Amino acid sequence: MVELAKLNAGLNDRSRRQARLRESAVSLGMMGPAVLLYTVMTVVPVGVAVYLSFTDWDGFSTASFTGLDNYKHLFDDPSSSDAWYVTALIAAVGTVLMVGLGLVYALALKGRSRSNSFFRAVAYFPHVISALILGYLWAAILGTNGAINNTLAKFGIEPVGFLFDEQFALISLIAVIVWAGFGFNVVLFVAALQTVPAELLEAAAIDGASKRQINLRIVIPMISPVVTVATVLNLVGLIRAYDIVVSLTGGGPAGSTQTFTYLILARSFEGTKVGYATAQAVFLMVVSAVLALLVTALRNRQDQAATS
Amino acid sequence: MVVLEAEVRERPKAAPAKGEDARDTERKEPRSPVRWALLGVLFVIMIVPVYLLMVNAFKSQQDILDNPFSIPLNGLTFEHMSAAINSPQFNVIDGYGFTLFLVVLVDVLCIVLAGPAAYAIARSLKRRTQLVLLYFLAGTFIPGAAVIIPVIYVLREIGLANTVTGLVAHDVASTLPVSIFLFVGFIRTIPVDIDNAATIDGAGRYRTFWSIIFPLMRPAVVTVLILNSIGIWNDFISPQNLLSPSSGHYTVTTAVYAGISQYSTDLTKVFPNLLLAIAPVVIFFIYMQRHIISGLTVGAVKG
């Protein structure tokens, strides 16, 4: 540091300005390529989406401007509102189950032992496998000719329409999503639980608190910031559900499991309403952003709490 | 950032305490029936689907339908598995090559672009450089699937529609926000004195970054590589939509999609192909388990 200061002192004003300019140029050179690629491939498409959402573009001919028409249809178009209902249900029920199961299993597996890390890995492994492939696997298990229905048939039980009955299909979809995703929360919560000081729990135990009381009154409140962040992360992830819908139910039967993202992509490629589909995409983006901003705000609060 | 810092600081402390800790919890934790029931249910629910996948990949259609759960010792056959391995159409094994190529290329380009950018952002005190970080951060809010059509539109305009270059460009761009965010957080924990020392020794900014700072960033680089590799390997939406079947290139996921949507009732095609698709990831997971779990946790909390 001293050397640097001396070095600086030795320079006159003009060369210092030149040095600063060179510094900025180097800085720009380091950030430039990343900024450029990110702008062209991510930010420009978002701008294009916003533009197309105000048009009736069909994917081929020239787009004509239609103002807010697409947005007006967002809620009075039945297939769109059905998809919203499905998406919201998946996000809400899925998040509650995933966070709940995550907490239960994290409390059971928080100790550092070999068997606990084994069970954590067992809960977690679907997270590294493509959702598309997990969906196909479960489709082969739950289908009318699947393992479960064939076994039921041996006991003379009629096949259950896990994937072919309108109400059952949505339940199956949520169950498979929860199966694939709750292990992530287990791992997240275990990491948080291991930071809870052991002295605190010992003190509570000495004071006569039961294990249940310790968990409910001390442990869970202490990791509540992580639980909140996990809740919103799950919500943000689940409102984008797509791959698993494609492979498990294909949106069916009769559109009963069409999520919003599924609808957007199906419409853009099958139909000709690209303008309308991008309006839905923009709307989904806004909802995502609101939820994601919520994560950032919560995280900032958590960081501040951690530093103060 | 807090998580990363905590991890780095705590690691040496935690290591010696581990053995002691394990004994502690082993002693204190009662072997309650509720706990065993919970773990039993977990084990069955998580493992049975994988068991079915492995067993049924080696059975005939009739055996799969009649006895999905059993292992018919003399009925096991490698026939359908070898048919899947040698299939001329939608071959998952062929998909490995192209998918691995994508993963490696995207990983390398992501590090080459995100590394220096994160370094410049982390070491600058200027307000406008911090705005660049926010600009990248905004990318984490964008649901990739929903904007894939505008991406196709842009690729068409710049003449990269339906090319591998276009797909790679899109994939690299999609990895930048989280990677830069994690890198910036990590570089800020490395003392600036190290950079100054390198400057005095006559190293430029690039040299300082690549030969001094980058080697110190190993934990963050491993995290980013794991996150990106799993993400690209499993990605379905972008290869499916940015490369048409006529391009002749397919990844593991698009091969499975194309194959299974045609033969969904022929379980002797479904199970072997799914097993082939899952095998490399599960082997990688078992091998790298600890790194993957800690890496993805950091990535998720901070991304």
Structure description:
- The complex is a heterodimer of chains A (308) and B (303).
- Chain A is an all-alpha fold and 308 residues long.
- Chain A contains 14 helices and no strands.
- In chain A, helix 4 packs antiparallel against helix 11 and helix 11 runs antiparallel to helix 14.
- The longest helix of chain A is centred in the N-terminal third of the chain and has 40 residues.
- Chain A is flat and about 70 Å long.
- Chain A starts with a helix and ends with a helix.
- The mean pLDDT of chain A is 86.
- The N terminus of chain B is likely disordered.
- Chain B is an all-alpha fold and 303 residues long.
- At the A-B interface, helix 2, helix 4, helix 5, helix 6 and helix 7 of A face helix 1, helix 2, helix 5, helix 6 and helix 7 of B.
Largest interface: A-B, 93 and 103 residues
Helix-strand category of chain A: mainly alpha
N-to-C SSE string of chain B, H for helix and E for strand:
HHHHHHHHHHHHHH
Enumerate how many helices of chain A there are, as a single number.
14
Number of DSSP strands of chain A?
0
How much strand of chain A?
Answer: under 5%
Helical content class of chain A = over 70%
Question: Kindly state the mean pLDDT of chain A as a whole number?
Answer: 86
Low-confidence stretches of chain A: none
Summarize the SSE layout with pairings.
The complex is a heterodimer of chains A (308) and B (303).
Chain A: H1 2-10, H2 13-52, H3 69-76, H4 78-108, H5 114-124, H6 131-142, H7 147-154, H8 166-193, H9 198-206, H10 211-222, H11 224-238, H12 243-248, H13 260-270, H14 274-307
Helix pairs in contact in A: 2-14, 3-14, 4-8, 4-11, 5-8, 9-10, 11-14, 13-14
Chain B: H1 2-28, H2 33-56, H3 61-66, H4 79-86, H5 92-123, H6 127-137, H7 148-157, H8 164-187, H9 192-200, H10 205-216, H11 218-234, H12 237-242, H13 252-263, H14 267-302
Helix pairs in contact in B: 4-14, 5-6, 5-8, 5-11, 5-13, 8-11, 9-10, 11-14, 13-14
